[in-house]
Write a structure and sequence with these properties.
Blueprint lengths: L13 E12 L5 E3 L4 H15 L5 E2 L5 E5 L8 E6 L2 E6 L2 H14 L14 E10 L5 E7 L7 H12 L5 E5 L1 E2 L2 E2 L8 H6 L16 H12 L4 E8 L4 H6 L28 H16 L5 E5 L8 H17 L3 E5 L12 E4 L9 H6 L4 E3 L2 H4 L21 H5 L15 E8 L7 H8 L2 H10 L7 H9 L1 H8 L14
Parallel strand pairs: 2-3, 2-4, 4-6, 8-9, 8-17, 9-12, 12-13, 13-14, 14-15, 15-16, 16-17
Antiparallel strand pairs: 1-7, 5-6, 5-7, 10-11
The structure holds ligand TNX.
Ligand TNX binds next to loops.
């Protein structure tokens, strides 16, 4: 199927087709990498070589495909010019070039995503795309606590997400059912609560050593994705208390839990041991985190009194800041007066906001994850095999049909940091399950986060989305074949 210049998700800011022109990549095509573009040029060659079978040498001399930087553009901004003589990709910074490479891949035939050589005409439609993001934070979240996912599975997930210009991956590392990140000063966390029998129904054991975690962070960084680690507290802490009973009120270890209840566990706000523990954990996690954000959870603390909750959050926020990070927390955190650098992550299905609008008025930027639109763990329909439905079912059109700057009174465009699509893993058991819940809804959230508001159009989106079925099949990525989309073979 011939691709047209506008056949891209998320929709680019500006598309100017030149119907008279096109460029075809062949076995004589080379890539010219200007200074500072070498890393992305190597990535471009790497992603094109398996399917094309071409050598695609990268050098600094003249070539048909040219990568260059232009400091006049924003960091994530790029311009892609396709003419008969060749292709010029210009980025404001390597991140912008990387996004431009994803656009270029989408403009090639679906076979380009194959892992072994294929016969195809590697034709790019002519014209110019000038593109830049609406919001700086476009994220996904993976819950590795309810079910653990390996380093390789997380890397594969990153590779699927970046195709839609996602630039943050939030890892929900701890919860009642498991603790998934090694902490040197409190080794029983993973020795006990990362081991066999942990996770929902005991089916999701495992944890990241510090070396594993650093490997994920580096892999993501090479793809311009920032990892946002979450240590959920003061609720959702049963796994920590199983390993260290001194973190409970009576000092008695609770039973290990593998069910899906929420809201029953709590750290003790009035105990000094609590803060010794939290301080150590946050320090070690901050050390593993080159990115600016550290997520402290704060959701569903039903077993914590309102007074204790506020005391706890007020004690913990300055620790995050002291370790050089910006605190992120589920919006309940906004029950206290937040520093302007703190980011509440709004997840409610109603417009009620537990202080989020007040935080925005005080200068905080809000991360928008309304559950009825962005939660990738909600069932698509009542018949879905996987997922929950407490926020309703979420079809593709519903995921696409909202706007982050219109969702919450008092939280307009200027107060929105961006959007994030969380995937909780109570019902998930494999990477294929993760992919099935993510695709095709994640592209909808990605377009909301990246593309200009004015161009939002469901008919256009579902038509563009239809072309991704063969692309995901080539990559071995599972997806839900929603009847809302007129899929092509
Ligand atoms: C609510 S939304 C939770 C999680 C569950 C999720 C399931 C939020 C911040 N907390 O503990 O896994 O619902 O959809």
């Amino acid at each position: 199927m011939t691709r047209e210049l506008g056949d891209v998700i998320p929709a680019p800011a500006e598309v100017r087709p030149d119907a008279a022109a096109h460029f075809t990549i062949d076995d004589g095509t080379a890539i010219s990498a200007a200074s500072g573009t070498e890393q992305v040029a190597a990535y471009l060659a790497d992603v094109l070589r398996p399917a094309t079978g071409f050598g695609l040498p990268v050098g600094d001399g003249p070539a048909a495909i040219v990568l260059r930087l232009d400091g006049a553009l924003g960091d994530e901004e790029y311009r892609l010019e396709i003419a008969a003589a060749g292709v010029t990709l210009t980025g404001g910074a390597p991140a912008g070039l990387f996004h431009g490479v994803q656009t270029l891949r989408q403009l090639l035939p679906a076979e380009v995503f194959a892992t072994a050589p294929r016969q195809a005409t590697w034709r790019l439609p002519g014209g110019t795309i000038a593109d830049r993001p609406r919001f700086g934070y476009r994220g996904a979240m993976l819950d590795v606590a309810r079910h653990f996912f390996t380093v390789d599975e997380v890397k594969s997930y990153v590779d699927s997400l970046v195709q839609f210009k996602i630039n943050h991956l939030h890892l929900h590392l701890t919860d009642d059912q498991g603790w998934r990140i090694e902490i040197d000063s409190w080794p029983k966390l993973t020795a006990i609560s990362g081991g066999d029998g942990t996770g929902v129904d005991g089916t999701g054991p495992g944890f990241y050593t510090k070396a594993d975690y650093a490997e994920i962070v580096a892999y993501a960084a090479a793809r311009f994705v920032t990892i946002v680690p979450e240590i959920d507290m003061p609720g959702h802490v049963n796994a920590a208390q199983v390993a260290y009973p001194e973190l409970t009120a009576d000092g008695v270890a609770p039973p290990q839990r593998t069910d899906v209840e929420v809201g029953y566990s709590s750290f003790v706000a009035g105990k000094e041991e609590t803060y010794a523990f939290v301080g150590d954990v946050l320090r070690e996690v901050a050390e593993l985190t080159p990115g600016p954000y550290l997520h402290i959870g704060g959701d569903e603390a039903q077993a914590t009194t309102a007074e204790d909750y506020r005391a706890f959050i007020e004690r913990v926020l300055p620790l995050v800041t002291a370790y050089g990070k910006r605190p992120v927390g589920w919006h309940e955190m906004a029950a206290v007066d937040l520093p302007a650098a703190a980011v509440p992550q709004f997840w409610r299905i109603e417009a009620s906001d537990d202080g989020t609008a007040r935080a925005a008025a005080n200068g905080s930027k809000v991360l928008m994850s309304p559950a009825d639109r962005t939660y990738l763990d909600m069932k698509y329909t009542a018949e879905s095999r996987l997922g929950l439905d407490w926020a309703g079912t979420v079809g593709v059109e519903k995921a696409y049909g909202w706007d982050p700057a219109e969702r919450l009174p008092g939280v307009g465009e200027e107060s929105v940091l961006g959007v994030e699509a969380p995937l909780w893993s109570e019902t998930l058991r494999s990477l294929a399950d993760v992919q099935t819940m993510t695709f095709p809804r994640l592209p909808a959230i990605a377009e909301i986060g990246w593309s200009p508001r004015a161009g939002r159009d469901w008919e256009s989106f579902r038509g563009r989305l239809a072309a991704f079925a063969p692309r995901w099949r080539e990559q071995g990525v599972a997806f839900h074949p929603s009847p809302e989309i007129p899929w092509v073979d």
